[in-house]
Amino acid sequence: MIRLGVVGHRGYTRLPEVLHTLLRVAPELDIALQLESKMRDVAGEGAPLGAPQDIDALLSLGGDGTLLRGVRFLAGRQVPVLGINLGRLGFLTSCSGLDLEAGLRRFAAGDYLAEARLALDASLRDGTGVPRHRWHALNDIVLHKGGFARVVRLIVSSNGEEIARYSADGVIIATPTGSTAYSLSAGGPVVEPSVDSILITPISPHTLATRPLVLAPTATIMVRAEDNPQELLVTVDGQVGTTFAAGEALEVSRAGHPVLIVRFPGATYFTRLRQKLGWGSRPQA
């Protein structure tokens, strides 16, 4: 029996229909569902979602944001994550909501690949070096300014050696998976997910000499503010975070375990790039 945890986004109109299909098909496939509270409210039934160690796989119903939230719930536990796209982009998801039943059948039969994606561990250390926050991220860790209209000066180092002092609106530290997210819109490169690496992408740098950088996966990156920062924020996967105060340091390194993303044979990375980002398509008249 497969113990399948289910997380989802209530904002999708087709969610009740998808949950109905899921509850109908699961017993036939010897799948024991565990639904987070919001999904149980919509479905009106189902066992509650327990701790990460109580499930064998995770099903995400929504878009990329829902899948990222599900990955944080796993807190480093290595189980396959099957994403069902109910939104528009769904770059990280495995199939669309229309293919839910077929996807579940293939998953239950073992007809899938579990792509190991590099993840990040981050800690925010106070002036004495003691961590006051820790996070696990699949896409990126971002240190950026808040609501004020001026640049910040950030000192970025790798394995104890200073890389550069950026005058910018912030800096993105991203995984190859996150290279197609915020880092891409800030001018960073697209990195194929099997190339283990860590990306540093400055946000709106105030010199043309500043460029994105791709580091080895063994790098431990430290970011400090050169002056007394005001309204600086740390954001994790675009969803959670905290403030960044004077004297603090942000430390980011490769997580101890990768995230396992379900892919079905035939759905290649470059196929998704062409479909989701419109690569190679002719401009519309």
Question: What would the keywords be for this entry?
Answer:
single chain; 285 residues; alpha/beta; Rossmann fold; Tumour Suppressor Smad4; 2 domains; eight-stranded mixed sheet; six-stranded antiparallel sheet; 6 helices; 18% helix; 38% strand
The major pleated sheet works out as: 8 strands, mixed
User: Roughly how many Å apart are the termini?
Assistant: 53 Å
Q: What's the count of strands?
A: 20
Number of helical elements: 6
What is the third-level CATH name, the topology of the largest domain? Rossmann fold
Overall pLDDT confidence: 91
Helix content: 10-25%
Radius of gyration: 20 Å
Output the CATH homologous superfamily of the largest domain: Probable inorganic polyphosphate/atp-NAD kinase, domain 1
> What string, H for helix and E for strand, traces the elements in order?
EHEHEEHEEHEEEEEEEHEEEEEEEH
Given as residue ranges, the uncertain stretches (5+ residues, pLDDT < 50) are none
User: Could you name the CATH class of the largest domain?
Assistant: Alpha Beta
- Estimate what percentage of residues fall within beta strands: 35-45%
Backbone structural class: alpha/beta
User: Could you say which overall geometry the principal axes of the C-alpha atoms support?
Assistant: globular
Q: State the domain count.
A: 2
